[in-house]
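Appendix B, example 12.
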Amino acid sequence: MPRIVGRLQVVAAVLVAVGAAMAQTEPVLDRFGGETSVRCAASGFFRTERLGERWWLITPEGHPFFSVGVNVLSFNGTANRDGVYHYGDACRRKYASPEAWATAQVERCRAWGINTVGCWSDWALFRERLPYTVNLDVGAANWLSGAWIDLFDESFVTTVREKVQQVAAPLKDDPFLIGYYLGNEMKWGPDHRGGHLLDEFFSRPAATATKRALIGFLRQRYAGSLEALRQDLDTPAQTWDELAAASAITVRPTAAATALRLAWAEAVAERFFAVTAAELKAVDPRHLNLGVRFISQMTPPAVLRVAGRYVDVMTINFYDIGNWVQLIRGLWPDYLVVDDDLAQHFAVGGRPILVSEWGYRAADSGHPNTWPPIYPVLPDQAARAAAYEALVRRLLARPWFVGHHWFQWADQPREGRFDGENNNFGLVSLDDEPYASLVERSATLARAAYARLQAEPAATGAAEPTGRP
């Protein structure tokens, strides 16, 4: 009998331990997906708050929320170069309507631990069911070419105002909306789309507002002295008017010239973020300003510092690009490093970070995975799921991350989209079949995000709230 009793006690202890583990890994969530064991101030809208040393999004009901999102959650998916939507065709065969598709995807998202509709998605189909984000895309810079508009012209203010009125005004009272992106992967320095902003804007005609702003910037920086300017910029211009009329300039390899390029990028950022933040706040002061989805490897600190004064959350696209990082660092050594899990980005910008885009592709999917060539191609789906877990665990270990959004819901077309991308980035295939190992890992890690609240007791009530009151 003592032996039996002893065994029963061991079994009971195991059951208690299992129950405690389940209690830790199965959080009780509010209707927005926030963890209800911790209570913060409820503002009626999403905001940010630091609990202890860790940053969180806070739901409208006042609970910590770690955003696990997915981009391109779209009924059609991605078109190929001929405008064919393979995923959309599969969905039309499988579901009665886009609304029926959305209902099915809500259930999938909840099962897989996905709680946010990310960028490039059919967010209107998910309103009042999942928190979502919206891209205002105010159009200051072309994502594909990197080309900027005449940013300092008053028409830029008008364009932003009209876009905010069109998109944000109808959404300003929706508690399920987390916030707005201002744009995507804007060009802030030399990359595959061209050179420095100073050089680019100098090529503008003298009559443009941006060229006038640049000449005014140079006159102020060099105290009106062309001789002083020639220490850093090689130009035959004898007057400031002649300099304004010139379409090209040679930047000397001096430390001061490097600082000049950074200072002009900072001035451009100040103009962009000041205008967009003011116009957005005037129409919708209660939702979060989610910034511009910076490319992590091509972010100058001066630009990030400016952004931090205006945005509520720093959104950064954070892909693994292997040894290509070294090539990018060669373009401009002032770009911030990324091998510290964006610690420098946080230190400089001073805002919590949402990884707004990331993903991995695998060779066993039947996709070419050839463009762009910078991303690694993993051998199979098991390796892709392992890579997913490795990065998410790194993000969970860092106190400045408030979420991550995977790119993308369904695979890209095998024959390539408009720009040639042909990758196995999907959580589901073009036939709407989930990659089981990946979505199972997603569900497990979503629970782990909230386990931190129990492992690291939060100093609720003594936090530092930010964002919209």
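The longest helix spans residues 255-283. Residues 1-24, 459-469 have pLDDT under 50 and may be disordered.
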